[in-house]
Structure formats: C-alpha cells, structure tokens
C-alpha cells in the first residue's frame, strides 16, 4: 500500500511568534491547518488517490468500477486514524473521506518494521529524497572559545627590600617601563649594611694576618668567618659581583644598588624616593611578557575535545586577520556554576610584544576525532575512525534522534530508526548506537518521510509511540469535535512461551539497575546497564513472526538505546533520567506481551500457582 504525505520543512524565516490576541492566534492556527490539509490533498492526488465524489459520479463507467475495486479503505486527510470501508464524512471534522487504493505495480511485500514507509518513484521525486551511506572516517571538531590575555605567573618577579633602610633613588619611576636583567632599579641607604660589610672586611684582614704569621691552626676558622660574612651579604640581596667589589675597594658603604632579577615590564610601582622600608617591602612588580598566558572559557560540552598539548589558534581585535597560536597547558579542575564554563589556559609566545595583558581574544581549537569522540593529540596509527552520518540526516529529539534508512532489497522503502548520537563534529554527527557502516540514511526529505509516518499513526519523531494525529478543529460544521487520540499500541499479543522465557534476563537486568540506583554508585549503575545490553543480545527474535516480530524489533531498538545511554552515563542524574525512559519502555513491553512485573506471562503464573 502506497501512502505518503508531503510537508515543507520549517525554515528560520517562517516562524509563528506568540501573540496576546487570542482571535489572531486562532485565525493563524486555522489557516495553517487549512494550508496543511490542502498540501496533503494535493500529494494524495499526485499518488493517484482520488476523492470519493469523483469515484461516485463515474460509478457506471467500467474503468471507474475497476478503480473502485482497488480502494483499500476511506480516510480523512486531517485525521488519518479514521479508516472506514465505505465513503462518507469524517466523524471528527466532517470533511469528505478520500479513498486509499493500491497503485499499479506496487510492492505487495509485508512490512518488516513498524516505522516502514513505501514510496513510489514519483513520490520520491516529489519529496526530493537524497541518501548517503553511513561511514567510518576521521572528522574534525571545532571548539570556539573567548577569553583574555594574561601575564605568565611563572615569569613574574617582585623587587623587594632585603634589609631595612631608606630609598634614596628609584632608577625606574613609572609603571610600564621595560627593564633588562641586572639593570639598576633602587639605590638604598642602610646603616645595617655598613656593619655587615665591615664584618666581612675585618674577617678578610684577620685571615691575611694569620697567613703571614704562619698560624695555620686558626686559618680554617677565619676562612669560615669570611664565608659566613659573604653569605650574610648575599642573603641581603647583594650579588657576588657586588660583594667582590666591596672586598676590592676595601672600604664599606652604607648604600647598595638593587638590580632587576629578570627582563620584562614594570607592572606595579609600590614605593617612592625617601620612603623608609622594612625587610620584605615590595618596591616593584616586573613581568616577563616574552611569553604570555591566554585564559579561555570552554563550555562543559566541549571539554571532551580539549587536551593538554593541543594547538589553538586565536585572534585579537587589535590585530584583525593576524593569527596567533598557543598550546593548551592547563585545564582548570573547577567548574564555574554561574557561567557553566571551565577555564582553559594557553601558553603563547610573544617575542614581538603585540599581545598585551587583558586583551580580548577569539580562539578556535580544531581537533581530529577517533572512535568514541576522543581527540587525537598524536597519531599512532592505531586509532579507529568513528561511525558518522551527515548532520542533515538525524531528526533530533534530544540525546536521541530518528533517522530513515533505505531498505537495501526493497527500492523505495524506508525504515525509521531511533539512534543514540554522539557529539557533533562540523557537518557530521558521531553515532553511538543504532546504525552500522554501509547503511543508507536519508539526508534530504527525511522530515517529509517522518510527516508521512506520523500521518499514518506509526512511531515517528513527534509521536515515538505512534498514534499521533492532527488536533481537533472546525470546518463550518458546528462545534469542533474533541479528538480521540489513539493510545499507544497496547494490544496484548499471543507469543510463544519460549520467547517470553527469553525475556527473563532482560527483566532481571532491569531490576538490577533499579537496585544499583538506590545504592547511588555510578560504576555499579553503568555495569548494570551493560548487563541489560548483554541480555538483549540473548533474545532470539526468530521465534516470532508477523506483527509480534515487528513489535519486538521496536522494543529491542529502544531498550538497546537505553542500555547504551546508561552504560555511558557520566553523572548520576543522567543515569536516573535514562532509567525513567527505560521504565516507560519496559512497561510498554509488559503490556504488549502480556507479562507481569516479574516478566512471566499470565499462563505461566497460573501454572506456577497450581504447582
């Protein structure tokens, strides 16, 4: 049977904005409903589905009676859940029913999935169907970040007073001045320095006198005294060259020159000439800006692609178009709950001094991804490419998505699948489960296929359980009739007892997950989800046929997605949310296959009761 519906995919330019005027909103909704009905009707006509009035007016013609025999049922274009054997009006909206009939040469094969749709070549052309194969290939992810330039804290130096005294002169008297290593910075007066120098000179004279007198017994002691005096001056900030100069001069001085310990730029000037200082008083702060830090803000979802050692390109507003590079040196272990970001620090060379502290930057990190979405820092040849699909293929419903796959041995037939996506990498999505390499996924026209699936009350993106339809409305036939939404498929099916017995490990694993969640240990929870995935592989679906077989394929797909999401959960909240979805699927499974809470059928429970 060939039924399809044509919908235009919504664009960013076509958005219905909320309004405070109820009458205007109602008119807009009514017009949109009428336009949709018109488009659906036109598509039905394209597929050789005629209106009931036309077939009735030509009932006496031989060709008309032949066409009448092909009619399968009569339905409403706005409420496709209405299926009647004869023509008439829709009991919900009063519109004339239209016949649905088989097209000549239509494939009469039975559907293999609840989400299957058959399109004729003309319908495929009208829906502009395009498909691409699922493939394994290395893809590049792009992470965009913003941040600021900062000075390198490992290249920061403080110039302080090592001894008490008075500042007689500051050689650098403004902030921002460039200085070189060992450049004079401060001329300091200190009476204590005078006594320390005198101690050194006296110790040296005593050592020389002992050597001339031949008193070798005291020579070792005097040498130790000279070394102690030299060490005292060194600890007070004098360099070995300055100490040697004092010894050579042979005369103590009450003033000393404090030198710059590194080359750089004066960030802060904290003292003035004439100021009396104590030991440890800060006079200057100097930063070496030949290498700087770049502090960036990375979103939580991007952290999986950021590793130490990666190269990052960035630009500044001061030098538009000029690309600077840095290397990821540190990823902050703390998360900012206000901005929902993590600080990432780069080391960047700044030999020309173009990068100034507090400049704004825009950074881009590009990395190649391997299987599992892991960033490749250094290629070893052992990396396996990830399974990817074009970004236009999935219809996103959250972490999961719906894709439509072309059935290989049945041209024009498309099967919907719910899959679990990984992160997006440019124009591709990584696939965690639900597809295999070589599957042909629809990349254009998938929204139209999903619309047709939804109209047929089958499981779709908007109605995962099936049974969805358009809302109640009025067509000039009085008050709008409340729509009776079809409930999800809950018909209890008669399946072999051997198959029900196979489901016992599945229910046991489900209960284990619930018990692990009560204990609250994430490793135990993910392990329990893994056991569910293993239990699903042990179910032999060949024991079923027909509709029960398709129902189990649907549930197996949903339960496997739950197992994969739970197995890869990184937070307890994620595992709990997945378990809620799993519980809904398990409840539907019990209802459809007539199972109690323990997974037994009603007949099995009754037999155990008699035994």
| CATH homolog superfamily of the domain at 153-281 | RNA polymerase II/Efflux pump adaptor protein, barrel-sandwich hybrid domain
Helix content: 25-40%
Integer-rounded radius of gyration: 40 Å
Beta-strand residue fraction: 15-25%
Task: Give me the CATH architecture of the domain at 153-281, please.
Answer: Beta Barrel
Number of strands: 26
What's the shape?
Answer: elongated
What value does the average pLDDT take? 81
The CATH topology annotation of the domain at 153-281 reads as: OB fold (Dihydrolipoamide Acetyltransferase, E2P)
The CATH class of the domain at 153-281 is Mainly Beta
**Number of helical stretches of at least 4 residues:** 14
Q: How many angstroms separate the termini?
A: 49 Å
Give me some keywords for this one.
OB fold (Dihydrolipoamide Acetyltransferase, E2P); Four Helix Bundle (Hemerythrin (Met), subunit A); disordered C terminus; elongated; disordered N terminus; 611 residues; seven-stranded antiparallel sheet; Elongation Factor Tu (Ef-tu), domain 3; six-stranded antiparallel beta barrel; alpha+beta
